[in-house]
Specification:
It is found in: Cytoplasm. It comes from Aquibium pacificus. By secondary structure, the protein is an alpha/beta fold. The protein is built from 15 helices and eight strands. It binds 1,4-dihydronicotinamide adenine dinucleotide (NAI) and 1,3-dihydroxyacetonephosphate. 1,4-dihydronicotinamide adenine dinucleotide binds next to helix 1 and helix 4.
Length: 328
């Protein structure tokens, strides 16, 4: 169980702040790097992050800074919690000052759209000497910050390190399981966001709970197919970072990806909505599926929907019109 460690968190958004809060409450020394001065001031002065975690009072010992050097000083572990498409830049910022003995835990969910790389591949390019892990699973930032019970998976390819990191990051309310299937945990987290957009779109278009259940189930088949093409183990995808996160985000308006899809389904504007990682990951996930000869009709529908080439009802009509097949 966590406590007494020095942990650095890169990213002052909702998830970085929530992880920093639970780890700080568990007795760790937590330092958070945020690029935005207002966020740093609010955390240090008011013990709050009203922009990203409204209504949550933060632990007084949690400190923030815009200076990455001071955040990293003495850190035993770094949590990287910026959006997936900005992960490379954030890691590049700390690369010259991060000791190579410090493990980096990637907490974002996405695939780098410009390269098709998983975030662990990005991290290994930027920080070739550091051990890389991923933390993923069904966990809304607000729930974790509020101390509600949550379970996630912490994965690295080294089982001993995975167990040590899971122990380091578990708190009385955040239970971390360990796994050596890094790729499985990463891909499960990245692809569920695309499916949450699809589920939200079906709900927003008023197509009914039955359609939503069918879509999520068939979406999970797509997720498994794509993840297994990366080398993920099927049982990982049946776990927290896969099925577990689909159950959470494909049925809750608390999910930003679901809400984004919901707005699309209702024909509402999406320009001012908060971060929905599935928007950036959908296109690259479909491209990867195409390159590998994988059937991914729901991912394709999300891409067409995001590009405004199709409506939700047309997308669902197309899915229904596909040739009948065995359920696999
Ligand atoms: N919010 C949640 O409930 C959960 C989020 N995640 C994942 O965590 C990742 C981060 O999401 P949130 O914290 O929710 O996003 P957010 O939108 O709440 O915050 C993003 C933060 O990253 C910062 N940022 C953006 N670009 C940056 C850059 N280039 N360099 C440094 N900082 C930068 C922003 O200033 C902001 O503080 C995403 O991949 C998300 O899928 C995972 C589990 C739960
Ligand atoms: O990943 C999450 C919960 O596990 C958060 O989901 P959203 O990014 O869709 O809000």
């Amino acid at each position: 169980m966590s406590g007494g460690a020095h942990i650095a968190v890169l990213g002052g958004g909702s998830w970085g702040t929530a992880l920093a809060q639970t780890l700080s409450l568990a007795g760790n020394t937590v330092r958070l790097w945020a690029r935005d001065a207002a966020t740093v001031d609010a955390i240090n002065r008011d013990h709050a992050n009203p922009r990203y975690l409204p209504g949550i009072g933060l632990h007084e010992a949690l400190r923030a800074s815009r200076d990455a050097g001071s955040i990293l000083q003495g850190a035993e572990c770094v949590l990287a919690v910026v959006p997936a498409q900005t992960m490379r830049g954030a890691l590049q910022t700390v690369a010259p000052i991060l000791p190579r003995t410090v493990p980096v835990v990637l907490c974002a969910k996405g695939i780098e759209a410009s390269s098709g790389r998983l975030l662990s591949e990005v991290a290994r390019e930027v920080l070739p000497e550091n051990l890389v892990a991923a933390l993923s699973g069904p966990s809304f930032a607000h729930d974790v910050a509020a101390g509600l019970p949550t379970a996630v998976t912490v994965a690295t390819e080294n089982p001993d390190l995975a167990s040590r990191l899971a122990a380091l990051l578990s708190t009385p309310t955040l239970r971390c399981y360990s796994s050596d299937d890094l790729v499985g945990v990463e891909v499960g987290g990245a692809l569920k966001n695309v499916l949450a957009i699809a589920a939200g779109a079906v709900a927003g278009a008023g197509l009914g709970a039955s359609a939503q259940a069918a879509l999520v189930t068939r979406g999970f088949v797509e997720l498994r197919r794509t993840a297994e093409s990366f080398g993920a183990r099927p049982e990982t995808l049946m776990g927290l970072s896969g099925l577990g996160d689909l159950i959470l985000t494909c049925g809750s308006g608390q999910s930003r990806n679901f809400s984004y899809g919901h707005a699309l389904g209702r024909g509402e504007p999406v320009g001012s909505l908060p971060l929905a990682e599935g928007v950036a990951t959908a296109g690259i996930a479909w491209k990867i599926a195409g390159e590998r000869g994988l059937d991914a009709p729901i991912t394709e529908s999300v891409v067409m929907l995001l590009d405004r080439k199709i409506t939700v009802r047309e997308a669902v009509a197309n899915l229904l019109a596909r040739p009948l097949k065995r359920e696999t």
